[in-house]
TrEMBL record:
Origin organism lineage: Bacteria, Pseudomonadati, Pseudomonadota, Alphaproteobacteria, Hyphomicrobiales
Sequence ranges assigned to domain NIPSNAP in this UniProt record: 3-105
Coiled-coil segments on the chain, per record: none
Organism: Bradyrhizobium frederickii
Protein name per its UniProtKB record: NIPSNAP family protein
Amino acid sequence: MIYEMRVYRCVPGRLPALLKRFETATLKIWEKHGIRQAGFFTTLIGDSNQELTYFLAWDSLAEREKKWGAFMTDPDWMKARAESEADGQIVGNIVSQILTPTAFSAVK
């Protein structure tokens, strides 16, 4: 199992729009493609309270490539993204890291 950590730094004031998009659209589209989330977090204390951090669980890099690629080109996702950004851009920057658990990690 590998995990992907994604950190979305929002345009100031747009975090609520991002959270709404995940809750009402993105998660349903992920379910259609078999994308498994392993947790969502907002920043309580840190550099910016305009961030959403989440983790995805993958069996392999090949699974990620296939499912993420299908999601990114899904017409439902493209429509949801466009509709959610009708009032302007939501995300200013995305950082993604692929992580593998250590032998002593509680998460495997």
